[in-house]
Amino acid sequence: MAEIPNSGAEVSGSGSSDFISEFIKEDLQSGKYTYVHTRFPPEPNGWLHIGHCKAITVDFSMAQKFGGKCNLRFDDTNPEKENYSYVEAIKRDIKWLGFDWEDREYFASDYYEYLYDIAVKLIKKGKAYVDDLSEEEIREYRGTAVADKNNITHTPPGRNSPYRDRTAEENLDLFARMRAGEFADGTKTLRAKIDMTHPNLVMRDPVMYRIRRATHYRTGDSWCIYPMYDYQHPLSDAKEGITHSLCSLEFEIHRPLYEWFINEAEVFPSRQIEFARLNITHTVLSKRWLFRLVSENLVNGWDDPRMPTLAGLRRRGYTAEAIRDFMSRIGVAKTDSMVDIAFLEYCLREDLNKRSSRIMAVLKPLKLIIENWEAGETEELEAINNPEDESAGKRKIYFSRELWIERDDFQEIPPPKYFRLYPGNSVRLRYGYIVTCTGFDKDPATGEITAVRCTYDPETKGGNAPDNRKVKGTIHWLSAAHAVPIEVRVYDYLFSAERPMEVAPGGSFLDNLNPDSLEVITGAYGEPGLAAAAEGDRFQFERLGYFARDPETSGGIPVFNKTVGLRDTWAKIEKKSGQ
Length: 579
What we know:
Rbsml_bL25/Gln-tRNA_synth_N, 2 domains, glutamine-tRNA ligase activity, Rossmann fold, single chain, 23% strand, 26% helix, 7-stranded mixed β-sheet
C-alpha cells in the first residue's frame, strides 16, 4: 500500500467535521428545527477555486446526511463586479464536482424589495438611521484596534455619528429619497443602530445600504441603493428557511451581527456555524488575488492550468473524484491549518492510477537506431492499457528500425547508479526487446548526440529473456515512422514559496511567483492513438506522469497538459547527489 503523505491538517478527533454534525443533531433533538436546510452562497464576481470546494462539500453533504436540502444562492449585491458569465461558470463547476441543487436556485437580487422593507421596519423600530458621514469619516468615528507598549491590542470606544439621533420619520424620508435617486453616490448610507462602544468593531453601527449608480446584471437600473453583504446574507438565509448557515472561519467575528439582524428583523432564526477555510501550500485562495493574476495577464485566464480554480484544475486533468476524496480525507476543522499540496497530488495520483490509460510518449526525442533490424520492417507488439483495470484491454504498438527515446535515457559518460543506455550497457525497451548500446553519433560542431546505435536480442521479446540477459533498466520508446507530433505543457507550482502571502514589509505576493511555472515542449511525439484524443481525455505517459488533452491545439498539433508527475526515484538521487 502506498504511503499517505502528511496532509498537514487535522483530519480526525475533536476538530473533525463531526462538530458540525453534533451541532445539527443538538438542534434537531431540542426541537429548534424539524428539518435541515443549508445553502451554498457564492458571489458571482469570479470563478470557483478549490477553497470553495470545501464549502460546497460541507453544505451539500450535511444536507444529504440529515435528509435535508441545499440551495444554490448567488449573493449578488455588488453590481460593479458581477455578471452572468460568473454565474454560468459557478453552476458548471458545481455540477462538474458532482453536486446538484435541483430546482433550488436563488438570487439575492430577487430579494431587494424584501430587504428594503425590512430596512424600513428597522428604521421604524429605531434600529437604523441615515448617516451623512463619508466612508472615511465612518471609519474614523468607528475607531481602530491599537497595540500598547506590551503589544496588547485594545479597541478604544468609537464615537456616535452626529446624525445618529435623527427621528424615525426623518430617516424614513431620507431612506425613501435615497432609493428615489435624489442623492449622489457616497453622500448617504443607512446604518444599523447598535453600539459604537462595542468591543467588536463589526457591531459599531455597520452600514446596511450604500448609494451606487451602477447597472446590475439582473435588475438593470431599477435600484441605485444596494444592501451590504452583512445585512443581506442573514436575511436571505432567513427568507429561504435556511436552518444552518455554514460559513468559513473569517465570518466568526460577524456572527453577533448575523444574529442581531435576524433577531431585530424578527425573521426565521437561521443559525451560523463556522469552520476553518482551506489553505494549501504554494497556492493563493482568494478571488481578489486570483482576479489580479488574471487582470494583469500573469496567467492565461481563469482556466489557466496553473490556477487553483476548478476550471483550471479540470483543464490540467484533475478529476472531481480526486478532489472530493481530498476533501473527505482532510476533514473540516475548527481552526485554520495549512495542507501540503503534496497531499492533494497524492489523492489525484490514487484516482488517475485507476482510470488512466497507459500510453508512451517521448517529450525530448533522441533517435535510436537498431542496427540488426531490417530497414522497412515493422512488427506489432502488445501493450497493456491499464494494469489496474483488466477490462481496459490491450493495444497494438509498432516496433521498427528507427525509434525515438528520451534524450535523458542516454549518457555518453554515465554517472553512478545510472541504469539506462550508455556505450556497452543493455536495457529493455518497454513491451519490446532488450537492446545493447554499440555506439552513438555526435555533431562535431556542437558536440550534441544526434543518434544512439544499438543491437536487439530477438530472444527477449515482451519480457522474455534467458537467465544471463537480465537487465536493470527499462525505458519507453516510439517507432519513429508511426509516432505523431504533440505539444506538451509542463506545469510547476505557480508560487515558489510555500506560503505566498507571507512577504517582506513593502513586498507583494506577486514577488513569490514562480518564473518557471510553465514549460512548453514542442517537437514531442506520442503513440498514434493520441491524435484522436478528445478534450479532457487523461493518460499516463509511461515513466513521465499523468497528462490530459487540452482544448487548444498548436498549429493543428494536439496539446497535452501535465497533470501531475510520477514518483521519480532517479530525480531524487540526482537532486541529492547535486547538493
